[in-house]
Amino acid sequence: RRGRMELSCAMGGSAAAPPGPGPPAAAAGLGEGEEYESLPSGAALGTHMVAGAVAGIMEHTVMYPVDSVKTRMQSLQPDPKAQYRSVYEALKKMVLTEGLWRPLRGINVTMLGAGPAHAMYFASYEKMKKSLSDVLQPGGNSHLANGIAGSVATLLHDAVMNPAEALSLSPAVVKQRLQMFNSPYTSVLGCVRTVHRTEGFGAFYRSYTTQLTMNVPFQAIHFITYELLQEHLNPQRRYNPRSHIVAGAVAGAVAAAATTPLDVCKTLLNTQENTALSSLNIRGHLSGMANAFSTVYQLGGLPGFFKGVQARVIYQMPSTAIAWSVYEFFKYFLTKHSLDKKP
Question: Per the UniProt record, which residue ranges are transmembrane (predicted)?
Fold first, then answer.
């Protein structure tokens, strides 16, 4: 048995390889050429799922207050008391005028779906990426494979999670309504009952098509950018916290900025912003991506599609940095633990 190894998460610590070109130092405790991704196939799926679940919960809970701000800043016709110039100003106003815990309202419904969603997502991505890379670029890293794997993993994740979301009545819809300024809802169950009674079950899935349309390009851009940066910062794919954080942050920012217009439409479909819809004499409830695009353009023109882009990028950069660094750490830790147990 190999001796136990001390795990260092510090930037540039002994277990982390320096970024940039040149061969990184071998991970302590692993033999030469034995990378932490080489976990036996029987345990690899569980490793990816556990690491993904922890990463998802950490990502969404740590950054949830900024997500609340993003939802409000995407409002097409906000209340005068909810007009913010920056993320910091928004958080400060929310805490001072609405209470310390107001930015966290709805976090419980988000945590409910984050663990299983990310467990399925990362496991699907890892398996698909390896299979496609073996076909498209044997022995190498195919960016096309990374993009396709990210897109397919998104579709699989949403398809598998749909029944769970049906039981919890679409966390995104409930979450964003709880986040809005002057929200009439004070609890998750209260929001679910009211929306179901007044708008019907279909209200929980009005943004589903838009969500898929946004998630597929977002994740394709996200994973291609992450893997591309890893090639330059961490070419031998050792456990390197610095490279995972930097690559994750940049990948999240690029993908977030590029898909903001779709996110604005999704927010409108989820919140059914009454003031905005009334100003256009829209009766009933808005549904469909085409209607959402038309409404956003009528109310805000082209700039309307980028409302909240600052908050979205500020939210996504640390979110993806947290997700990747936590995911890679747990993948590394669990792999090392499994290898240590081998005779």
Answer: none
